[in-house]
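Subject: Re: docking follow-up (S-adenosylmethionine)

Dear J.,

Thanks for your patience while I sorted out the input files. As discussed at Tuesday's group meeting, I've set up the holo structure prediction with S-adenosylmethionine included as the bound ligand rather than trying to dock it afterwards. The sequence and the ligand SMILES I used are pasted below, so you can double-check that they match what you have on your end before we go further.
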Amino acid sequence: MQPGNHAEAPAQAPTASYRDSGTVEAWNERYATRGMVWGTDPNRFLADYATGLTPRRVLDLGCGQGRNAVWLATQGHRVTGIDLSPVAIEQARRLAVDHAVEVLFEVANVVEEWMPPPGAFDLVVLSYLQLAPHDRRVAHAKAAESVAPGGTVWLIAHHSDNITDGFAGPQYPEVLFDEKALAADFGELELLRNEKVFRDVEGEDGVVRVAHDILLVATKPAVPDG
Ligand SMILES: C[S@@+](CC[C@H](N)C(=O)[O-])C[C@H]1O[C@@H](n2cnc3c(N)ncnc32)[C@H](O)[C@@H]1O
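The structure tokens for the complex came back this morning:
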């Protein structure tokens, strides 16, 4: 099985709205009751991208239980992970201990509280940080601000058409996005990839179905010498 090939994004139980599903309480409850929700292996697209990458300063925004942050640390990167769920951050810290790596994990709401240190990271990772449009734009602007000149924003998310054409993931259109939204959010970066990618997901019934994701790789122009 490939990294993250299992139920990476199980369909969320119906709640009154996407707002209810995105609170600290809802995330804490999900993490406290469902074990390692997305497993302990890194997202497969991130593993493809980052295997063999020169060690860098990496930021993982919405790091959850730390599968990507910890894997990146095992690859030699200096990693900071931020998530609004204290339960997830505690689990992420334990995962780092299990893998004998150090990761700086911090509890913070990326939209409301966290202030991006400008240009402090060579690579900023966002993995399924599904936010409604206003919050998404704020988080993506902060991601772009925190990446250094010459650095990269790498993002994977559930695509807008996953509800109609794909499998699992959030069932609220408000928190899904597409190529157009990302082109606008990261318009000041050079977009190397901004496209739909497909992922096999094994459901609880054992049947493998295809999820539709969106993958972005964007670099910030380097500051010219002199
Ligand atoms: C679908 S999970 C993905 C977790 C992780 N990136 C991964 O791929 O395994 C989304 C994560 O974003 C976090 N999150 C949602 N809104 C956030 C916000 N405003 N600030 C920080 N974290 C947030 C949630 O707590 C959750 O852990």
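A couple of observations from a first look. DSSP finds eight helices and seven strands in the chain. The domain at 18-219 is CATH 3.40.50.150 (Rossmann fold).

Let me know if you'd like me to rerun anything.

Best regards,
T.
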